[in-house]
Amino acid sequence: MADRSTIPPEKASGWRGSRALWLEAAKLALIEGGLAAVKIQPLAARLELSRTSFYWFFKDRRALLDALLEDWDAKNTGAFRAACAGYAETIAEAVLNLIVVFHDEALFEPRLDFAVRGWAHQSDAVTARVNAADEARLAAIREMFERFSFAPEDADVRARTVYLVQIGYIAMQVEEDRALRMGRVPAYVRTYCGVDATPGELARFHARLGYVAEEDVA
After folding, report:
1. Burial label, 105 (beta-carbon count in 10 A; 0-12, 13-18, 19+)
2. pLDDT at position 214, please?
3. What phi and psi, each to the nearest 5 degrees, are found at residue 107?
4. pLDDT confidence of residue 6
5. pLDDT bucket at 215, cuts 50 / 70 / 90
6. Which among 43, 44, 118, 193 has the fewest CB atoms less than 10 Å away?
7. Is residue 10 part of a domain?
8. Residues 8 and 76 grouped into a single domain
9. How many independent structural domains does the chain possess?
10. What DSSP character marks residue 106?
11. SS3 of 216, please?
12. Is the entire prediction scored with pTM above 0.90?
């Protein structure tokens, strides 16, 4: 439900919400109930707004669904591109930059990715969009490896190894203890790029995620 305590007094009467609010509600509905749950009237009820309020921001349901796809692609694919292009002095540091994306849902939303992939089973157009996003993400990872002088064929296989492992996590909806998953990161780095991350690189990685390893507490 919309939190009316945050609505300015001058908007308390006849408030229509905002485009971002409707889009967020649609995203949550897609994640929780699939495509069939993304309908105008249920969203209006969820937001405690009138159905007509929706049309201030979107022409129709199709326009909302198009915006939802745009938002998913901009955020989730954009996170891969930004991470792979980020500053790194070594390939291990570059790989850690990318692994941050897998652990920070503020950057990349795995449940949204899973929901969009489910949606793709019902739409050829969405399937094409998902395939294009996968190719864009793979290209970003491949270019990251090539930047550190990996041969194109090697870079391609390594990129697929990194990405398909992550998609496997999403597809299987894997839930792991955080300490266990973080403990595997050094081995993942070694597997992905063939070198070990330094203690300093791992410390910066942990700091970015606000994680304190048990050995750092002792």
Report:
1. exposed
2. 67
3. -95, -45
4. 42
5. low
6. 118
7. yes
8. no
9. 2
10. T
11. helix
12. no
| Pair 50, 150 in one domain | no
pLDDT per position as a tens digit, 1-33 = 444 444 343 343 346 789 999 999 999 999 999
Which CATH number covers residue 44?
1.10.10
Length of the chain: 218
Enter the DSSP assignment of 57: T
Same domain, 92 and 175: yes
Is the predicted pLDDT of residue 84 greater than 70, yes or no?
A: yes
Q: What percent of the chain clears pLDDT 70, i.e. is strictly above it?
A: 91
Three-state SS string across 133-200, please?
HHHHHHHHHHHHHHHCCCCHHHHHHHHHHHHHHHHHHHHCCCCCCHHHHHHCHHHHHHHHHCCCCCHH
Q: Which among 18, 67, 69, 60 has a CA at the least distance from the CA of 39?
A: 60
Query: Could you tell me the residue range of the domain that residue 171 belongs to?
Result: 68-217
Q: Which residue has the tokens 């299987």?
A: 172
Q: Which residue has the tokens 């796809």?
A: 69
In this structure, the answer to whether residues 47 and 87 fall within a common structural domain is no
